[in-house]
Write a structure and sequence with these properties.
Elements lengths: L9 H22 L6 H24 L8 H20 E2 L2 E2 L2 H18 L3 H30 L2
Antiparallel strand pairs: 1-2
Helix pairs in contact: 1-2, 1-4, 1-5, 2-3, 2-4, 3-4, 4-5
Length: 150
């Protein structure tokens, strides 16, 4: 039987790390003036992390009663994020927000990584995502100017 009050303190660390990394990505999107910001990205990362944590707890404590696989939970998270991403892309009947939707998808994956205690992978993925959203944005503007000057 699952103990209601016996909680591994690392779960709180996992949720906080997921929130922090997700909110960091959302902060960049907020600065870029996009539809989804710190709250959306933070909630997606925390929710994704929480689904993995719940799956692992249920699997460990009730493995004989339930056929729960945290990897299947992760694939379900990806499906759910697809709906949110589609809502971001098709905003007011215009096709825009692809980068924000993709970044939100990565925020979900970061939450999953944190849920599996893959902190270094999650941190590096957050760094790469920020590089893509900021660094490559400047590089794209540079290339656009070069091409338009020809």
């Amino acid at each position: 039987m699952m103990e209601t009050f016996a909680v591994d303190p690392e779960i709180f660390v996992q949720l906080f790390v997921a929130l922090t990394l997700g909110a960091l990505l959302g902060f960049e999107r907020l600065l870029a003036g996009k539809e989804a910001g710190m709250r959306t990205f933070g909630l997606v990362a925390v929710g994704s992390c929480l689904f993995i944590i719940i799956g692992e707890i249920v699997m460990q404590e009730n493995y004989q009663m339930f056929n729960v696989d945290p990897l299947r939970m992760a694939s379900s998270v990806v499906t759910g994020i697809g709906f949110i991403g589609a809502g971001l892309i098709i905003f007011q009947h215009e096709l825009k927000g692809l980068t924000t939707a993709a970044a939100l998808w990565v925020a979900s994956a970061i939450g999953v990584a944190v849920g599996f205690k893959m902190y270094i992978v999650a941190l590096f993925a957050a760094f790469l995502t920020l590089f893509v959203c900021v660094g490559l944005w400047f590089f794209e503007r540079y290339l656009e100017k070069k091409v338009s000057n020809k």
